[in-house]
Design brief:
The structure holds 2 protein chains of 2 kinds. Chain A is mainly α. Chain A has one domain. Helices cover 69% and strands 0% of the residues of chain A. Chain A is globular, with a radius of gyration of 19 Å. Chain B has a single domain, classed as Rossmann fold (3-Layer(aba) Sandwich), CATH 3.40.50. Chain B is 34% helix and 14% strand. In chain B, helix 2 runs antiparallel to helix 6. Chain B is globular. The chains are: A mainly alpha, B alpha/beta.
């Protein structure tokens, strides 16, 4: 198979754009949530400053090899997710390293970071980290179920496992989007989306008030900075998948930025309206409301 | 010293007996070292700017002043717009706020929390209790001068200072950090023996390692 080496720098360029967009987007969403609470909110560049500060801390301690690898796994989950799906449809430069079966790989990468985090946080030995990880894994597992079902439904509908082909099938007008051709699958996926964005009502994993910060309790300085970088990449990468599968993809950067922002806003919108679920409530919620929708979407296709 | 911290012989589940010395085995007792800044001055200046603009406070309310910090998160004062955030874990925090009087019992926890923070780290004493004992000047179980036990960078005077005073204090703290004067962690490392002697003078049931990593 012929491999085009020029794709690698192009993919890195996509990564660069997405990292910066992710930092600004995160700050913007935080600002929006703050404005809802009638606060002024953080400056838009605050996340960059936090990142520099965390890289600039002088000391850091370790709890063992997995403690190092946890943030690395997490970051590679986000980066891998981004690199293997096309960011801009129809663009040679920004179709990244997508290939025929990338949908399966993307599903795997969504889970990968959480698993890495579980290993790393487990090594830190902090009880809050263990509680956070067990909550996180059980919640992610149940919130992945409807997404997986929705993705299978979409794959069945278009008879392909390639994200590029799914986007191609949705071109030519807003009514060709999966949102309108398979609304039940989109509904299931959007409910699942809430569960993985670390925003209320599904942020019991971090639970800043009761179990201080959960899995990353022991993480600091450069480790934390790596995870902050992932915090910028991962939501955007995940939204790119949603955008490609359900909302017709994007054929240029402005459309990309707008669609990603709007999809992100959905989780922020739900987050500011509803209070936090306990973990057993959120699991039950996913199993009762989201999973049947996913099954229904497969049956309807 | 507490019973569970004493050196003892333990019989394992497989019948093998081994000796356990908790303070030696479970903790690292190495004293802290002085950590110089970045070699190139302009990099250190950049870091100092970032440290000043992103102050993460350890959410550890020690005295009655803790109640003055809560309004800072609310819409009326909103310290987040100045880059000040609260972190629930000492590992991620840069600023330990001693908010008011500190009983010797709490001092123990404050010391352990401070030592688990990553360098460079800062201490702010809030209220007159941390300066000279304040209204608890003759109390038998509070410390009088915080500076004897932890390297204080800044005091905010008052009993209690209003949230506005805290905001002004954060701005002063930023100036100190940006000028490269926030070297409390190194001061603590340099005068480690002096600080430990002072701490052990008031904490009679010393049952922790000399430095908590």
């Amino acid at each position: 198979m012929e491999f085009d080496w020029m794709k690698i720098p192009y993919a890195l360029l996509t990564l660069f754009i997405v990292v910066n967009y992710g930092f600004l987007l995160n700050a913007l969403i935080q600002k929006i949530a703050a404005r809802v609470g009638r606060r002024y909110g953080i400056p838009i560049w605050q996340n960059y400053v936090d990142l520099i500060k965390n890289y600039g801390l002088r000391s850091s301690i370790t709890h063992g090899a997995m403690f190092y690898l946890g943030p690395v796994f997490r970051l590679s989950g986000g980066v891998g997710l981004l690199l293997f799906v096309p960011a801009i449809y129809g663009s040679y430069m920004f179709s990244n390293l997508s290939f025929a079966g990338d949908l399966i790989l993307a599903l795997y990468f969504i889970f990968f970071g959480t698993l890495g985090m579980a290993l790393g946080a487990g090594e830190s030995g902090h009880p809050y980290a263990a509680i956070g990880v067990s909550r996180g894994l059980s919640q992610v597992t149940t919130s992945e179920l409807p997404l997986a079902l929705a993705v299978f439904s979409v794959a069945l509908q278009y008879q392909t496992l390639s994200v590029t082909e799914i986007v191609a099938a949705q071109q030519g007008g807003i009514l060709n989007w999966t949102l309108f051709t398979n609304p039940v699958a989109v509904a299931a996926a959007m409910l699942s989306f809430l569960g993985s964005m670390m925003r209320p009502p599904f942020d019991v994993v971090l639970a800043p008030q009761e179990i201080p910060i959960g899995p990353p309790t022991e993480y600091h300085s450069s480790y934390l900075a790596l995870m902050q970088t992932n915090r910028a990449i991962f939501p955007v990468a995940k939204i790119v998948i949603y955008m490609n599968l359900f909302f017709g993809g994007a054929s240029d950067w402005p459309t990309f930025f707008l669609k990603v922002f709007l999809i992100y806003l959905w989780s922020a919108f739900v987050g500011v309206v509803f209070p936090r679920f306990r973990v057993e409530q959120s699991i039950r919620w996913f199993l009762i409301w989201a999973v049947p929708l996913g099954i229904l979407s497969i049956l309807m296709v | 010293m507490k019973e569970e911290l004493q050196k003892r012989v333990i019989k394992g589940p497989d019948g093998v007996e081994f000796e356990v010395e908790p303070l030696r085995d479970y903790y690292c007792e190495a004293p802290p070292t002085v950590m110089p800044g970045a070699y190139i001055q302009i990099v250190e200046d950049l870091f100092n700017w970032a440290r000043a603009e992103s102050i993460w406070i350890l959410g550890f309310g020690t005295g009655c002043g803790a109640i003055e910090m809560r309004p800072l998160m609310t819409p009326r004062f909103d310290a987040y717009r100045y880059g000040v955030q609260w972190r629930p874990t000492p590992r991620q925090a840069n600023l330990l706020m001693i908010s008011g009087y500190l009983s010797t019992k709490t001092l123990k926890r404050a010391i352990r929390s401070y030592e688990q923070m990553q360098s460079p780290k800062y201490v702010v004493g809030l209220g007159s209790c941390t300066i000279n004992g304040g209204m608890y000047w003759d109390s038998y179980n509070t410390i009088k001068r915080l500076d004897d036990y932890l390297p204080v960078d800044l005091y905010i005077a008052g009993c209690m200072p209003r949230p506005e005073a805290l905001l002004a204090g954060f701005q002063d703290m930023k100036k100190l950090i940006r000028a490269g004067k926030g070297e409390g962690a190194n001061r603590y490392a340099e005068n480690f023996d002096w600080y430990k002697a002072n701490q052990k003078r008031v904490i009679h049931d010393w049952d922790m390692p000399d430095y908590s990593w």
